[in-house]
Design goal:
- The structure is a single chain.
- By secondary structure, this protein is α+β, with helices and mostly antiparallel strands.
- The protein has a domain of about 100 residues.
- The strands form two sheets. A four-stranded antiparallel beta sheet has the order 3-2-1-6, with helices on one face. It has a two-stranded antiparallel ribbon with strand order 4-5.
- A hairpin with a 5-residue loop joins strand 4 and strand 5.
- The chain is elongated.
Length: about 170
């Protein structure tokens, strides 16, 4: 009985695998390349299933059409810190039509804001230089950068915030 146990034990003990030589490594690489070429000829997908799924999702995401944006800058008559700011209007730029409009919310401020709208924005940088943005040449940049401009720095009008929305909303 002991002999049978020792023989069974010896059969279950595996010998350590021998180290592959350079020739065996090269042979294994060559076999792998041949198998890969055969799979490509058959039209099999070589990517793992998880990677294939991710790629398909990325393809789906990349084919979603770009939605046109609407850029909005809210103008306020600055009264803080003594009183609340008074909404004066909004600038709107639409990508879909390329149109730039002003929608007033306070008729008393409309003329002043329309006068400011006709001119260029001046934006000062930290080195003392000034950049000008023309409403006629690039209305989108004009609306986006109006929050940084000297014209709407709070004397008496300021840009409370600039944000964008999808045209679908």
């Amino acid at each position: 009985m002991l002999v049978q146990w020792s023989e069974a034990l010896e059969a279950t003990v595996k010998e350590p695998p021998e180290k592959p030589t350079k020739a065996k490594k090269v042979l294994n690489v060559a076999k792998g390349l041949v198998q890969t070429k055969l799979k490509r000829r058959k039209g099999e997908n070589l990517m793992p299933a998880k990677a294939r799924k991710k790629t398909q999702e990325e393809d789906t995401i990349s084919t979603i059409p770009e939605v046109d944006k609407r850029y909005i800058a809210e103008i306020v008559l600055v009264r803080e810190p003594l009183d609340k700011n008074i909404p004066a209007g909004i600038f709107v730029y639409r990508d879909s039509t390329g149109s730039f409009t002003f929608e007033d919310r306070n008729p008393g401020c409309e003329a002043d804001i329309e006068t400011l709208m006709e001119g260029d924005l001046s934006i000062s940088d930290e080195l003392g230089g000034t950049t000008f943005i023309s409403v006629n040449e690039s209305p989108k940049e004009w609306v986006i950068n109006s929050v940084l401009s000297n014209e709407f720095s709070g004397n008496p009008y300021g840009i409370e915030r600039v944000y964008n929305l999808d045209e679908a909303e």
